[in-house]
Design a protein that fits this description.
By secondary structure, the protein is an alpha/beta fold. Helix content is about 45%, strand content about 15%. The protein is globular, with a radius of gyration of 17 Å. It binds farnesyl diphosphate.
């Protein structure tokens, strides 16, 4: 086994912001803000380690049913991120992409997200993809409908190109923080052979050293892709 093997594509389900805030008697919105700060540091560290693609689950289609006050707080973070940090991504050579159905967001938020991703399209250092108003099943069904409209039978590779992640390689390592052990509708088709890593830490507490530990764990696994 090759030691120090770095996953090319790391995806993270950033769970536990609410519990992080609750433990500190803070409003949930501050948990999400702490999550956003950590998200910025963590993706930076991942690219420094040589990861080329980082994909983060920022908001699921199911999350859109949360109380409006909480959603408003998250939307404020999106506005901040896609104005200020999108520019930082561009300067640092990180391409910024979004997957998900932006039409489910308030129009001004969707517009800010679109403008931010347009500002940071090229990335010699890596690609950061944020899943916003994203659902894995929905993405698969949309891809299937596209295939039906094209009226031809597809092979697996062709089908995967119809997904919103079509330009990304499949994730090698999927990390979930916050203690739950499930995929919660994230990258369902794409994660078929991903290595899964679960951390009990709430996302804002998941430090750079924790990512190093996850990468180390990944490097120690033998990936056989169904072969012997
Ligand atoms: C899950 O924690 C987290 C979310 C639903 C939102 C994640 C959002 C961010 C990290 C900020 C993203 C910002 C940008 C700019 C993309 P939870 O609320 O489900 O936590 P809990 O399970 O402890 O309640």
């Amino acid at each position: 086994m090759e030691s120090g093997r770095i996953p090319r594509h790391v995806a993270v389900i950033m769970d536990g912001n609410g519990r992080w805030a609750k433990k500190r008697l803070l409003p949930r919105s501050l948990g999400h803000r702490a999550g956003m700060e950590r998200m910025i540091g963590l993706s930076e560290h991942a690219f420094d380690r040589g990861v080329r693609y980082v994909t983060l689950f920022a908001l699921s289609t199911e999350n859109l049913a949360r109380p409006q006050a909480e959603l408003d707080g998250i939307f404020r973070l999106f506005r901040d991120y896609f104005t200020v940090h999108a520019e930082t991504c561009r300067e640092k050579g990180i391409a910024l992409r979004v997957i998900g159905d932006l039409s489910l967001l308030p129009p001004d938020v969707a517009e800010t997200v679109r403008r931010g991703t347009e500002a940071a399209q090229k990335g010699e250092r890596g690609t950061l993809t944020l899943a916003i108003a994203y659902g894995g099943r929905r993405d698969i069904v949309e891809a299937a409908n596209r295939a039906v409209r094209e009226g031809r039978e597809l092979r697996e590779e062709d089908f995967s190109r119809l997904l919103s992640t079509g330009e990304l390689p499949p994730p090698d390592l999927v990390i979930r923080t916050g203690g739950e052990k499930r995929l919660s509708n994230f990258l369902l088709f794409e994660s078929a052979y991903a290595e899964l890593y679960f951390s009990g830490k709430n996302f804002p507490d998941f430090g750079d050293g924790d990512l190093d530990a996850a990468i180390e764990d990944y490097a120690s696994r033998e990936r056989r892709f169904g072969k012997i």
